[in-house]
Amino acid sequence: MRRTYGTGCPPAATGTPGTGRTSASTWPPPRRPPNSSAGSWSWTPGGPSAPPVKRTALGRFAHGGATVTEAAGRLVVYSTDAEDGEYLYKYVSAGDWRELRAKGRSPLDHGTLYVARFGADGGGDWLPLSHGHGPLTRDKGWRDQADVLLRTRPAADALGATPLARPERVAVNPRDGRAYLALANSPGGPTCKEPTATGGVCRTTDPYGRIIRWREQPDARRTRQPTFHWEEFLAADDPDRPADGVFAAPKGLWFSADGTLWISTGISGHDLGGPAPLHRAAGNNALLAADPTTGEVRRFLTAPRGAEVTGVTTTPDARTLLVNIQHPGERTTRWGTPDANTPHKVSNWPDHHHSGRPRSATVAVRREEGRGEGA
Length: 375
Description:
Elements: E1 41-42, E2 53-54, E3 63-71, E4 74-81, E5 88-96, H1 97-102, E6 111-118, E7 123-128, H2 145-150, H3 152-159, E8 167-172, E9 179-183, E10 210-217, E11 227-235, E12 250-255, E13 261-265, H4 277-282, E14 286-290, E15 297-302, E16 308-314, E17 320-326, E18 361-366
């Protein structure tokens, strides 16, 4: 039987635009002011003198990354609000991205932003964050479309989107088009209840995280609200997982061309190495490889003490895997706290000098034989 828990708690039944959730809701914990959250920016790699451009159409919230793909010629951008109890978003350009660019219009500025509502039955809806839709009207306190985009979080609250257990990165399988989302973890809360009329799915606590996936449902005529079907792909607390596949706090997801799903973990310093049994079994943060068909997971490399594994990609010939390691030597409960006199107390990676200072770095893993990193 497919388990369908793990996508957070259902939203409050009512809410006031601009104020977040109702006073009766004690989970998730208090947010940062929504208007102070970061937006998305784009740069032009081939034009170093070109200024960065702020993409307000993608919404204003604590973006945990932007995964760009294409559907029927339209540009699609999946993004997450990477805090506990926040949401999954999808932006779809207003038309074929090539035609828009030919007219001098950016596909990142002309389109519709949606927020996800997950159903307990495995169904899901993309709710348009459009002025005039549902409660997003002037008489409800929403002045115009700019107001909706600048107050993305309260707008998503008002629509009844599903809060998630710290949503992080999204990756799209190049083989079948299914999208995958890493849910890092969540302490949950005492007011977390069973599914409400909005179709949210609840798990009171999720200390180790999980990965869910969904398939978009086609609507060639674009006559109805877009929908999707979702399921749980991996749960970190699966008791049947072999020792070399144990993980916790999945954050980064990336697909290589051969269809391998690469999972980067980000267990916090106070949890690394224990005391929880699964954190002890997982050890340091790691990069793992998963088979989307069988669900098999294998550890590929392990990060130094105090570090997280972040970005992953390959060279064009797929023979070298590039892996980013960030903040090695950070404070941990197990190995202590570094200071100005002992910066190497937790780790002295990557130089390994006896009095060295740990530094973030990129690791290149090269395959000497075979066809590439997934062989």
